[in-house]
Amino acid sequence: MDVKVAIETRRAYRSLEPIEITKDFINDLAKCAQITASCFNNQPWQYIFVYEKEILEKMHEVLSSGNEWAHKASMIIVVLGKKDDDCVIHDRIYYRFDIGMATEAMILRATELGFVAHPIAGYSPKKTRELLGIPEYIDVIALVIVGKHSDKINPAMSEKQIKDEGKRPKRKPLKDFVYHNKYEG
Ligand SMILES: Cc1cc2nc3c(=O)[nH]c(=O)nc-3n(C[C@H](O)[C@H](O)[C@H](O)COP(=O)(O)O)c2cc1C
Q1: Is the terminal CB of the chain with fewer CB neighbours within 10 Å at N or C?
Q2: Is 135 a pocket residue for ligand 1 (Cβ < 6 Å)?
Q3: Per-residue pLDDT tens for 48-73?
């Protein structure tokens, strides 16, 4: 798939059907993160791929209200990192930037393979830490919900989520965030 097509095809779908999770699939995604650019090649990202049925079901308890649709996940990728593992240049702290880029590379690769990889912030980092044995000093930055898009609307979805499923939510026009040659905001 062309990069532009992958970017345009990617959606944060919430109606999911199951997929088989293989080690090859996980390694394929991980290798996309592995070669992502990072400050000083620091590679600050760490990921837990949760796909074992029992643990995946326990992950339901870490999800915030409104994210019940994610109970249909075939895999949840837990995105981890810590400040000290990447550049800190005066007040510029780069780990979340680099980890975001690596995670987007995985999301686009999953899209290319025909899957949904939907990042979420609606979860409890504390409960996630407790369940998966993640130490306090590591940030739980995001979860990525993985599955396949289903035509059948997930009954756990709200009206707004159903509306968003059919049509990509509206974006700001370019003029609101693109400036030419000087700051125009
Ligand atoms: C950091 C981040 C956090 C998000 N958190 C949630 C979430 O908790 N629940 C949810 O349903 N979607 C979540 N989303 C998905 C966004 O709602 C979605 O990307 C946005 O509405 C645009 O839709 P699109 O990605 O299909 O274009 C999150 C996306 C990002 C990048």
Answers
A1: C
A2: no
A3: 999 999 999 999 999 999 999 999 99
Q: How far is the CA of 182 from the centre of ligand 1 (A)?
A: 30
Q: What's the rounded Cα separation, in Å, for the pair 118 and 76?
A: 9
pLDDT in tens, 112-171: 999 999 999 999 999 999 999 999 999 999 999 999 999 999 999 999 999 999 999 999
pTM of the model: 0.98
Distance 121 CA to ligand 1 centre (A): 8
Give the list of residues 6+ apart from residue 4 with CB closer than 8 angstroms, or none.
none
Instruction: Check if 102 has its Cβ closer than 6 Å to any atom of ligand 1.
Output: no
Residue 142 beta carbon below 6 angstroms from any ligand 1 atom: yes
In terms of Cα–Cα distance, which of 82, 165, 63, 169 is closest to 121?
A: 63
* Mean pLDDT calculated for residue range 78-106: 98
Q: For ligand 1, say whether the CB of 12 is within 6 Å of any of its atoms.
A: yes
Interval between CA 181 and ligand 1 midpoint (Å) = 31
